Every structure is written in C-alpha cells, then in structure tokens.
Amino acid sequence: MRKEILITGLGGQGIVLAGQVLGLAACLADHLEASFTQSYGPEARGGACSAQLIISDAKIHYPYVRNADILVCMSQSGYEKYRNMLKHEGTLIVDQDMVRSVESVSGDVFPVPATRMAEELGRKMMANIVMLGFVTSVTEAVSLEGMLSSVADSVPKGTEKTNLAAFNKGYDLGRAMLKARTKKAAAKHESKEQG
Amino acid sequence: MEPAVLTGEHFFNGDVACAEGALAAGCRFFAGYPITPATEVAEHMSKRLPRVGGVFIQMEDEISAMAAILGASCAGVKSMTATSGPGFSLMMENIGLGIAIETPCVLVNVQRAGPSTGLPTLGAQGDMMQARWGSHGHYEIIALAPSSPQEIFYQTITAFNLSETYRIPVLIMADEIVGHLSERVIIPDPAKIKLHSRPRPKGRKDRFKPFQPGPNGVAPMAHAGEGYMVHFTGLTHDERGYPVMTAEAQAEMMERITGKVRRNLDKIIQVEKYRLEDADIALVSYGISSRSSQAAVDEAREKGIKAGLFRLLTVWPFPEEIVCELASRVKGFITVELNLGQIHLEVQRCARGMAPAILVGHAGGSAITPEEILANIEELAGRVQGK
Prior knowledge:
The complex is a heterodimer of chains A (about 200) and B (about 375). By secondary structure, chain A is of the alpha/beta class.
C-alpha cells in the first residue's frame, strides 16, 4: 500500500496543518509509515503553498510526491501549478469556489464547496478541516477514527468541537456524493442492460 | 515539571525531534536567534526548557548566541544553539573560541540555500566545507548529518556525547528538508539512553591545570564557581590556560586540540553501508540526499546494476580510510549532495585516481531526485563496464 497525497492552496488556508493532520493520523493511529513535507514562500499569508504526504506500509526513502494519487486544490494557482503531478486515474478534489476552471482528467473529480461550508459554520478558517473530512470519506488513505483523534489533537484548545463539526460536514458530503455516484452508475448500467 | 524525555511514539518534524533529542541528552541551556528553517528548534526549546528546569534565552544575534552557550557550558550545563546559513557564518569566530578553550556544546545548522540570504525556506547542503574550515586556523571538528527526524533525535544525543567526551563543539549539519519533514519518531525509555559527561577534575584545587590532558588526551573540566583555578583565553595557551606566545606552545596546544580527535577516529566516525558488498558503483551521500540515493540504489539493482550506498552519518572527520579501501574494489564513485561539489572533493581525494569519482548535485532549492541519480549510475556503469 502506498498513497501519495498533494494538498495545494494559499498561505493562511491551513494547507500545512491539513497535511500534518493527515500524516499524524496515518502514522500514529493507522500505524503506517508517513512522510510529510511542506513548501511555502517567505510571505506570511497569500503565497503559494503546498503540503505533500506519502503514506506507505514500507519504508519511505524519497519523501516527495512524484505521482499523486490524490490532489487537493484550495486555490486556482495551486491547481495550475500542480495539476500535472496527478497520476493517471488519480483523484482530484477541488474547492469549487476557489478553483473555477478544471480541465478534464482521467480519474474522479470532486468539486467541494469547502470554504463556503466553513463560512456557513461561522469560521472560514475551517475550510481545510471540512476538506479533510471530505478526503477521509472519498479516499481510503486514512481511517475515520484516526482522523477524528488527529483533528482533535491538532486544532487549538477549545475549538475541538467546532472543528470536529466541520470535519463531519465534509465527511457527510463525501458519503452523500459517493452514494449518488454509485446510484447513478448503477442506473446507467441498468439502462444499458435494458437497452 | 514535565518529563525531559518524552518516551513514546510521535509524529515530529526534524527540528522538533532535534530539540527533543537535546533534552533527552540532558541539554538544559539554549541560546539562539530565530532563523528559517531552524526556528522550530528554538521555538520548541523555548516552550520545553523552562518546564524541565532549563533556561532558554533569545539573544540579540548569533554571535552572542554562540558565546552564551560556551559560557553556560563552562558553568557546567549542557548547552546548544540552532541556526541556518547567515547565522552559521556569524557563529564562526566563537566556534573557534569553543575549540581553543575546549568547551563542549552542540550547534545545529539547518541548512538552506546560500550564499547570503539565499533561499530561506528551501533546502541545501552548501555549508559542509564551512563546517570543516569556516573558523580561522587549523583545527579538527566533528560534524554529523541526519537524514530523518528519527535520526536527528539520535544524532543530537550522539552530538552531546561526543562533545562531552572530547570537550569540543559538535555540529549537526541538518538541512531544511529534514528539518521540516515530519515522520514517526520513537523516543526510548530514559534508562535506555546512554549519556556521556565531560571528564571532571579530582585532587587539589590549587594544583589543578585546566588543560592538562587525561589518559585519552582530553583534559578534565572544572566548572565556574567550583574553586578550581581556571583561565580561559582564545590566545594560544599552556596547560594552565595562560597565554604563551611561542611556536612551541602553539605546536603543543594544536597537538592537544587536533590529536584528541585524530587519535579517536574509530570511536567518533559512524557510517552505514547499504548493498556495498559486491557493488561496482558506490554512491557516497549524507543527510536528505542519502535518502534519494538509497531509492536510486534499489532502482539500479532492479535494472541489474550493482550499486551500493556509503552513507555518512559523521561527515567530519571524513572517513578517509573506508573510502580509500572502497576505491580499491569499486569501479566508480558518485557523490550525491545538495551543492556544487564539496564532499565530492574529499571522495575524489580518497579515490586517489583508482576509480573515477563524479558528482550528482545542484545549487540547492529542491531535493535531488532518485531519477537524476539513477541516470548517472547508468551512465557511469556503462562507462566503466569491463574495467
């Protein structure tokens, strides 16, 4: 088992924290090897930013993503810069209000209104956590239990409850989206057989 | 008080793992000035040290930071600082003082790309020769190179042990990538961590000579305020610590400060050999670059090329004898490092023309990829085939 995950966005969106939370869950809860790196510029906010995570059941030598199984984009510029890193049939997840134009890819594409959902919950800052909930439900990279404890351990004290609510919102949306897609695929399959 | 040793399993970045390694080694004093990408070492120490009975000071600059850790060590406290390129340059003069007054301490350089301000948030291994020769005069130094958070944890303990045993500043030459890379770090039970302390004086305080070597060439160290007669100066000094301005005194002091390292190379140098037994192509690497190298070795072996990796955990003193020995049985060397050729020069020197030695490196700012290394292994293997 080996998964390469790339999360991109702007400084201030909690991109690095998102990668850290996933890595913590994979390493300490799921007991897998996890290597988490980040890249950012000298700006405090607004610069291009990425988090790279490799999860594996074997020792990880080179710690950077070469062919992403999962690409999460929270900004248009992040998408533009890293879209070529997504491997064939890889999963692309974008914040649909932040990434406006997405070219067709060979794998699954999931548009998620993560920032808007976080705003509705009263804190735009939690868009990254909404996104993590979504990633947890539509990919099999990390366990739900691991993520719940990892989120609670990683956010500022006193905000655990609201962050877990944000996480669950994202998780539920992912479940619903997967269910709808399975249903649609089954209906398509059925109509094909009937035809 | 919090426990100083956080026994258990953690997901730490290299900087934090380094700080925890220092605490586990008994470090109780940190003086530093924040600088990317080493800031997290200071940040973590600033939180943890006061809770374990230690002292953290943010200094006005790196010159004073280096001076402060020497002072703390002379008072008997294991001490450390952490910095990156520009700060490392500022610390050079006082590293020399530490060598001259034989004061144990640990200096971490989380390397970023230089020269000057360079690329603050991006990694490089461009300070390796500065680590060896950056302070003026001729001296010996010990420098380690960690390749992962787990390794930097252990190497920090090793650095303290070596610095205490040989009364010498020890450098940990990390890099931005390892410093900011988070991975599993297992911290053992404190009882399982072996710690060494500086040799201490016995006998009459009034007859004590602070630089009179003990049986292993290292002088026992009296601490400030204990009542021993001590005198520290950066001037050339005799065993009493008093300045003596002659060539003879210089020769004697230099013999003492270089000899204690040169005579103990087998106890100081740590290396790792990976698939080297039957290797035709020997990669020589350290730190983050050694991880890309290890991946490339595996990929080359899959293609039927006998490649191996000689990984330097200790970069200085350089393991000359082992590289010389390798030169007589391999067909070629490839040094992999994030600079334009520094340790490569050492490998070339030790290969003595017996095997070609090439460099895979660049000016810094990103890790060297396994693909790039593999392409060079294939090229060199083709060139030396049949030789």
